[in-house]
Write a structure and sequence with these properties.
InterPro entries: Furin_repeat, Growth_fac_rcpt_cys_sf, R-spondin, Rspo_Fu-CRD_dom, TSP1_rpt, TSP1_rpt_sf, TSP1_spondin_dom. It is found in: Secreted. GO terms for molecular function: heparin binding; signaling receptor binding. Pfam families: Furin-like_2, TSP1_spondin. This protein is elongated. With about 240 residues, the chain is of the alpha+beta class. Strand 8 and strand 9 form a beta hairpin. The chain has a 3-stranded antiparallel sheet, with no helix packed on it.
């Protein structure tokens, strides 16, 4: 250590020298040696740089180097990120993953092998041929299933997600395009026409009955009242002459 030690340092240093930089740090800061050419300079940082891990002691907090294959680490023996070409597994950096695991080139970690998983088969579709369900006797029906878990690099690949088989149906003729719709439209028009006809007939019937009733009332008003016929039995009754 250079004998020229100063107390009025900058950059978080508690003590420093012109030759060696920081000699000690202020509380909670980490002391680390940085190499500049052939020379090492002490600096004080709030956290350790990449490739270093921090340790706290009663008198000083220090940054120590990780292992050569480790980019960042928690302690010297526990790496959290590996350098290029290595895969992280349980805090260690490995060139090759253990048996039962595979290398993930995206995260640069050794991960478990994932196999493909599919859903259950759907019910068989209606028997069809060239997109139609009529006009044929022999056709095909299909069923499908979905992939619910895609496999990893070394996992078992996914099986087929659709199946087809032959089918036989009772042959029936196809309706001409638009014929079914036309028939329905004609039935609807006929129904409306019948309803309108019934409505007109009912209206005519009510009008005729009303006209007859009015005619009878008018006839009753214009005809003279008939005189009551005499009682013939009373006229022929014997006259009592006994006195």
């Amino acid at each position: 250590v250079h004998p020229n030690v100063s107390q009025g340092c900058q950059g978080g240093c508690a003590t420093c020298s012109d030759y060696n930089g920081c000699l000690s740090c202020k509380p909670r800061l980490f002391f680390v040696l940085e190499r500049i050419g052939m020379k090492q300079i002490g600096v004080c940082l709030s956290s350790c740089p990449s490739g270093y891990y921090g340790t706290r002691y009663p008198d000083i907090n220090k940054c120590a180097k990780c292992k050569a294959d480790c980019d960042t680490c928690f302690t010297r023996n526990f790496c959290t990120k590996c350098k290029s070409g290595f895969y992280l597994y349980s805090g260690k950096c490995l060139e090759k993953c253990p048996d039962g695991l595979e290398a993930n080139n995206h995260t640069m970690e050794c991960t478990s092998i994932v196999h493909c998983e599919t859903s259950e088969w759907s019910p068989w579709s209606p028997c069809m041929k060239k997109g139609k369900t009529c006009g044929f006797k022999r056709g095909n029906e299909v069923r499908v299933r979905e992939i619910v878990q895609h496999p990893s690099t070394r996992g078992n690949p996914c099986p087929a997600t659709s199946e087809s088989r032959k089918c036989i149906v009772q042959r029936k003729r196809c309706q001409k395009e638009g014929k079914g719709k036309k028939n329905r439209e004609e039935k609807r028009k006929k129904s409306n026409k019948d309803e309108s006809k019934e409505t007109r007939q009912e209206s005519k019937g009510r009008a005729a009955r009303r006209q007859n009733r009015e005619q009878r009332e008018n006839n009753n008003k214009t005809q003279p009242k008939k005189r009551k016929a005499p009682n013939k039995e009373q006229d022929l009754a014997p006259v009592d002459t006994a006195h």
